[in-house]
Amino acid sequence: MRLVMTEPVEKMERPYARRWWALLVLCLSLLIIVMANTALTVAAPDMTEDLGLSSADLQWVIDGYTVPYAALMLLFGAIGDKYSRRGALLLGLGVFGGGAVFGYLADSATTVIAARAVMGTGAAMIMPATLSLLAATFPRGERAKAITVWTATSGVAIAAGPLVAGALLEHHAWTSTFLINVPIAAVAVVAALVLVPPSRAAKHGRIDYVGGLLSVVWIGALIYMIIEGPHFGWHAKALAAAGVAAVGLVLFVVWELRHPRPLVDVRRFTDRGFAGSNLAVALFFLAVFGAFYYLTQHLQFVLGYSALETGLRMLPLAGAVFVGSALTGFLTPRVGMKWTVTAGMVGGTAALALLTRIDAGSSYGDFVAPLMVLGLAIGLALSPATDAIMGAFPESELGVGGAVNDTSIELGGSLGIAILGSLLATSYADHLSDATAGSKLPASTLDAAQDSVGAGYTVAQGIGERAQQVAAQAARATDPQQAAQLKAQAGQLASGARQMADAVGSSFSDAVAHTSLIGAIVLGVGTVVVAVLLPGRKAAEPAAQNAEEKELVGTR
Fold first, then answer.
1. What's the per-residue H, E or C state across 419-450?
2. What is the pLDDT of residues 31-59, one digit of tens each?
3. Given 17, 66, 72, 478, which is the most exposed site by the fewest CB atoms within 10 A?
4. InterPro entries from the entry (predicted)?
């Protein structure tokens, strides 16, 4: 049977000579996607103060990136497969960089959210392109190692985002954090043109645009529901989104089952290894994104670290990711991915369980062990799960394969921030209500303090400033009796400010412990399910051989 080769990578009998340099470009592209979210977490307090953001505004600043990112990946992955994976990468980097510049110039909540949405659209082109180009460029024998490096880059970005953003915030406004991505994107564009070989499917029929549109509808509606419902209540918009997501998903599955060349062959999800790997990725990022969301807040607000200091204190996580990646590269070929993925998920569960010990007296030292265990778990579990997902797709569908993996990441991450973030907010408000019961503060003041940990400390600071103003009035008073009354009032206000600050700190610490317990239970139950689903090493080997045969058929 005659082989039809249309791309430089596929013409070569030997592996592409500069494939490791190409991997560096792909990792740079991945770096800015992850940093776009992690850098924002440390810039959020300054942004909130400068723009006067409500909690709803801030939530949509964060998630305005996520909705187009998650919703568009499957369609963009298929388009990249058919026309040009490198072209999708380059276009995505251009759109992403343009959105970052737009964010730098933004001066309102609306424009920041719009800029983030543009960046999310660019990320939806970049993310599946990085994995599909990696899989197309590296021979199967080296692919697991390359994916391990790709995964480790995510761990670096988790710590690098707050670190670089914190350094910028020492001397510049929050808008400067958007510019972090621009020089990296520019370098990646030039390097991609030089080092990344062009690639597209050797044989790809017409794109299933109806399936692509249905995927955009149901994934976008699902992400919107996940964001809106837990945070802002199950009002008409959230319930409507839930209905659209359910109907859209059913229509998508029915259409894909009947289409001769579906966007995604949904029958793959009946394969235990494929389903288990996707579930592992989603659950892991549920835990990672959720924990990162409240850990950075605790370090900044409760422990009082600056943005830069917070970034530095996340470095143990990045270091541990490298160690875990090295371990999985050694262990997975010997014991099989079932054991390394399960071990990583057990480690993630243990990290969350360690966070249940956090209380009002906890210092940074109490966070080091959970951060290191979580980083080790990320390194162990994610690269073999990603390799298994990519291995389930033939060469003609690598972009879609990358998009499926990345959609699992985004669904899990969105669920983590929405569910664990909502639990955190509810637990914090309940604990603060108990801690301030019987206080003489106005109900409106207490309600404001319960909105978030940042709002709580703002209320305490306001009371302290009022105490200073009354003390100054007492110093100026000429009537001794009035001066004594004012001095006593100032003392009461100062004591109230300290009590409020202590109550806010202890309430948030208790909320972190409570939320971590729920997260550990969810991830622990998920670990058992994944362990049951994933095939053992002997069962996985025939599946891998079948995947290789499908790849050969896909190029003939």
1. HHHHHHHHHHHHHHHHHCCCCCCCHHHHHHHH
2. 999 888 778 877 877 887 788 877 677 77
3. 478
4. EmrB-like, MFS, MFS_dom, MFS_trans_sf
